[in-house]
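User: Hi! I have a protein structure encoded as tokens and I'd like to know what sequence might fold into it. I'm fairly new to this, so please keep things simple.
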């Protein structure tokens, strides 16, 4: 299988299933964003969209509808293998073969996070039914570790819009209205994801330095955006003509070039809000909470103090305490299992004698 290296990022010209098996180690990818073939005669897409194909790159490889289920299961199985535990995957799909992709996701054991609807412009014109103007974005995770989700990567949770609404809340709703990119007179692939859409997924689900993979590179828009946000990128493209053209173009993309264009969120409150809890964080929380409550502090006072010490919000601390099995007081939760064991009396029992 042929490959090209661009600024330390390796891209493969070949089938993603065999290519991943040969070149991508288990549990090595932080995030997958991909737009697989739809199995709807995409090689004749102009018949669906009534558009001029003059500037569209040739070489698109479609998947036969009859084999779409097996095809989906095979590539999603590889996607799960290469994702690290806690890694995320976004799959863009139309509705025709959506059920095949959903079936494959369930069969491979990936877990749903959100089913996002992407509403776009330039829908398929119809005269005897409603206009189709959306795609599905299936956001799933690989179980086994804490999933990365950068809550305040785009808007602070305390920010207010002019109408007093929350931009953070609105940005995280599961219906996204993002227009396609209109490129008259420019070379383009048959179906390219807009940069704005990709930036949003990359900001929420990855950090600088993370490895982002696209199983179906197409116009290399995922790779280009990932590199522009200072992520590492890899992926596969079966078409030789598309691969050669897009790799050449990608060499002009400077790592981190998109970072200055990003909005800076106004973040207020706890400095560690939204940051994943590490094992060390959890042990510190339990230990400190237990000591505080044993010394006579109420749960409310202990939680408030730990919020200041750990830079966390009250709800985050209470949720983690509950997850760690501490529901009432540190002293009681720590000792109840010891005192209720075989041959031991509980404090309630001792008080009756």
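Assistant: Happy to help. Inverse folding works backwards from shape to sequence: for each of the 353 positions I chose a residue that suits the local structure. Here it is:
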């Amino acid at each position: 299988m042929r490959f090209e290296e661009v600024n330390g990022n390796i891209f493969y010209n070949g089938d993603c299933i065999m290519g991943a098996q040969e070149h991508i180690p288990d549990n090595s990818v932080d995030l997958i964003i991909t737009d697989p073939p739809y199995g709807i005669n995409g090689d004749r897409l102009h018949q669906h969209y009534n558009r001029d194909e003059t500037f569209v790159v040739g070489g698109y490889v479609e998947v036969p509808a009859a084999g779409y289920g097996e095809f989906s299961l095979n590539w999603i199985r590889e996607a799960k293998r290469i994702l690290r535990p806690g890694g995320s995957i976004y799959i863009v799909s139309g509705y025709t073969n959506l059920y095949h992709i959903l079936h494959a996701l369930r069969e491979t054991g990936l877990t749903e996070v959100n089913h996002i609807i992407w509403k776009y412009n330039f829908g398929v014109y119809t005269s005897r039914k409603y206009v189709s103007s959306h795609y599905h974005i299936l956001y799933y995770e690989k179980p086994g570790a804490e999933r990365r989700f950068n809550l305040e990567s785009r808007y602070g949770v305390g920010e207010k819009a002019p109408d007093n609404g929350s931009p953070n809340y609105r940005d995280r709703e599961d219906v996204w209205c993002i227009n396609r990119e209109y490129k008259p007179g420019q070379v383009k692939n048959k179906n390219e994801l807009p940069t704005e859409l990709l930036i949003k997924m990359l900001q929420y689900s990855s950090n600088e330095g993370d490895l982002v993979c696209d199983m179906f590179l197409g116009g290399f828009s995922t790779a280009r955006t990932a590199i522009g946000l200072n992520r590492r990128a890899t992926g596969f493209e079966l078409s030789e003509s598309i691969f050669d053209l897009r790799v050449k173009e990608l060499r002009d993309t400077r790592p981190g070039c998109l970072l200055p264009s990003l909005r800076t969120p106004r973040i207020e409150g706890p400095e560690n809000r939204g940051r994943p809890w590490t094992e060390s964080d959890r042990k510190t929380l339990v230990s400190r909470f237990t000591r505080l409550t044993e010394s006579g502090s109420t749960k409310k006072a202990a939680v408030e103090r730990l919020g200041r010490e750990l830079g966390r919000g009250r709800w985050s601390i209470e949720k983690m305490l509950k997850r760690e099995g501490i529901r009432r007081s540190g002293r009681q939760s720590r000792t109840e299992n010891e005192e209720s064991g075989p041959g031991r009396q509980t404090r309630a029992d001792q008080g009756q004698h």
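A useful reference point when you look it over: The chain has two domains: 2-261, 279-339. Feel free to ask if any position seems puzzling.
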